[in-house]
Amino acid sequence: MISIIITAYKEDKTIGKAIESILENKIPTNYEILVLAPDKQTIEVAEKFSKKYKKIKVIKDGGEGKPSALNLAFKIAKGEILILTDGDVYISKDSLSKLLEPFKNKKIGAVSGRPISLNSRKNKFGFWSHLLTDIADKRRKKAKELNRKFYCSGYLFAMKSRIVDKIPKETLSDDGLISFLIHSKGYDIDYSSEAKVYVKFPTNLKDWINQKRRSAGGYNQIKQWTKKKMRSFSKESSGIFQVLEYPKTLQEVFWTLELILFRLYLWMIIFKDINLKKKDFKEIWVRIDSTK
User: Fold this and answer.
1) pTM score, two decimals?
2) How confident is the prediction for the chain on average, in pLDDT?
């Protein structure tokens, strides 16, 4: 049995499509879908599906953030494999079977899906989203080929249950921490580029900074907790040539140079946030409205 966990918050406009995309998948085993949300609007939409499909369970979480919602889901889930995704994304029709295939290898503890940008490449922020997701896809493929460690994408990934039962409620990068814990327990992480998850990315600079601050800053938080090397400015800088090779037009070249400058600015902000224990969780974990 597998448990498909959807965490959501004020995503009544997108949760229906997220659920429908899962129901459209041919799942080769018995399964349950757990939808966790703290707000009335999202729960009401999800309950329309749960009344029609017995496999769907809707749970009201305490509204303390995604890590707390995941901890609740870990307690409730019955599956031997957990598939984690969000209420503001949707998956391709064969994503779930592609995620499950690698678990035939007992060494595999988790499998990451591939985020695909829904944004238009014809504007700056849309181009940035395509650049970053396409390069992430290439890097995960390369890491898999070379048998190097890499981390799951929080938009869609599967993992064996009971490897991780709980994460700190102030965790900023739940996918990063869970991936680290899976590696630390001796399991490998696989990657399926065919397990596609469609994501809307930020469309303005404020939301872009807030989202990247949370994700990249979250890796610094994990570094503090574990004393292990994580994502860093130096590691990111090493991929600069790959970034510069991506643009196809003169306009995209200018956008790429802007992206590099704003990534530098982002790391300056992260360095200021380095002692995250002094930061309130809600100060950094802010809602990114333009992705909804």
Assistant:
1) 0.91
2) 90
